[in-house]
Amino acid sequence: MILTVTANPSTDRTIELPGTLERGGVHRAVRVIDQPGGKGVNVSRVVQAAGASTLAVLPARADDPYPASLTAVSLPHLAVAVDAPVRTNITIAEADGTTTKINEAGAALGEAAAAELRSVILARAETADWLSLCGSLPPGLPDTWYADLVRDLGDRRCRVAVDTSGAPLSAVATTDVDLLKPNAHELAEIAGGDGDAMEAAAAQGDPSSVADVARIVADRTGGSVLTTLGGSGALLTTPEGTWFATAPAVTVRSTVGAGDASLAGYLIAHLRLASAADLLRSAVAHGSAAASLPGTTPPTPDVLDEDGVTVTRLS
């Protein structure tokens, strides 16, 4: 079972435009989609679509529309009670696939709610194969919250994956975490380098600079690092080696949630005891399929193109 935690959930509103966004202009939307979001929820929805067992843990009021939206898509979830409503994040999707995001900070998590959330996570982790800690932290939680959870989970059997950014990522990168899922810029935040340059080089078929920095992080944590590179593919760095995968060609509709789908693809394949190359293949296939769908729609197995993913082991 894959347990996900979304400490700062959101309703994801995607506004699709017929052309290019013009600052200061007036636009008529082609379509507006509201979906339950937040990185952990996105991961759980992809896992569920693959037919695997999952539970999404998050803070939300019982009478908030957000838990009802999870029930509407039949996603197993457990909501810890809080006082404030779940935030709304807005994505503006242009016709060429360019996306602009406007995210609310989220409601502050009080001391009692934070303690209950932590208690629920530790209890549910006892029966999970993977725990995935995902997304930003809401106001009220310290930057070390994920890192502290990883340390608390050190003697439990479940593996732990973390997908976050900024100070929480820097903190968790000092722990013995099983899997980190940064992008090139987040990787540069925690181990140096130029994210733009690394991403550009990978787009030209040279992932060596990304591989060098990812190796530093993997050696530091003792675990694996899945570095997503958008349309250029992804890199998997493990204690045993490094693999690079290029992505299949897709028509991009929304990149929001594509990284979450990549993480889900890795976790799904890991449950099936896949090799490192196939873990990466599954991650890239899921991320690419998600980018071809509107909003944060989870890809289903029938839209995956694993044969279009080329995986190479780097020396």
UniProtKB/TrEMBL annotation:
List where this protein forms a coiled coil: none
InterPro entries recorded for this chain? PfkB_dom, Ribokinase-like, Tagatose/fructose_Pkinase
GO molecular function list: ATP binding; phosphofructokinase activity
Q: Residue ranges of region Disordered? A: 289-309
Under the heading Pfam families, the entry gives: PfkB (PF00294)
Keywords of the record, alphabetical order, are: ATP-binding, Kinase, Nucleotide-binding, Transferase
What family does this chain come from, according to its entry?
Belongs to the carbohydrate kinase PfkB family.
- This protein is called 1-phosphofructokinase
What is the source species?
Gordonia phthalatica
> Source taxonomy lineage?
Bacteria, Bacillati, Actinomycetota, Actinomycetes, Mycobacteriales
